[in-house]
Amino acid sequence: MPEGRLPTHVEVGGLIRAVEAAGGFAMVLQKGERDAGALAIVMSHRGTPARLWERMPQMDGSRKFVLSRTQEVEKPREFQEYLSRRKDQDQDLWIVEIDVADAERFIA
């Protein structure tokens, strides 16, 4: 694990507590590698289309969250199928779903 990086399980626990403190709901959909697993966050609020944000390595060496998928209202199953494929591709991946207003503030 790179120096200065929080273990993923600690980051996930903090995220869940912060969302709940803001009056939202959060739950782990998939547990990944405890210390160095990648993190993906499914965001929605009161039935709005879900958005999947994944932390991706950048050219400058940083790791920023990038919007990788938005649920299409007419095809909600495709979003779930994409999540299933991501789970199969990366067993170390953590997937956390949050339902809270202004969810993007938690990855800023």
Write the SSE topology.
Elements lengths: L7 H14 L3 E6 L8 E6 L6 E7 L5 E8 L5 H14 L4 E6 L9
Parallel strand pairs: 2-5
Antiparallel strand pairs: 1-5, 2-3, 3-4
| Strand arrangement across the biggest beta sheet | 1-5-2-3-4
Distance between the termini: 22 Å
What is the percent of helical residues? 25-40%
Q: Judging from the principal axes of the Cα atoms, what is the shape?
A: globular
Give the biggest beta sheet.
Answer: 5 strands, mixed
Number of helices: 2
Name the average pLDDT: 93
DSSP strand tally: 5
Gyration radius, rounded: 14 Å
Query: Which ranges are low-confidence, i.e. pLDDT below 50, for 5 or more consecutive residues?
Result: none
- Summing up helix and strand content along with how strands pair, one would put the structural category as alpha+beta
Sheet-strand content, in percent, reads: 25-35%
Q: Which series of helices and strands comes N to C?
A: HEEEEHE
Write out key terms for the chains shown.
single chain; 108 residues; alpha+beta; 5-stranded mixed beta sheet; 5 strands; 26% helix; 31% strand; globular
Would you summarize the structure shown here?
By secondary structure, this protein is an alpha+beta fold. The protein has helices at 8-21, 76-89; strands spanning 25-30, 39-44, 51-57, 63-70, 94-99. It contains two helices and five strands.
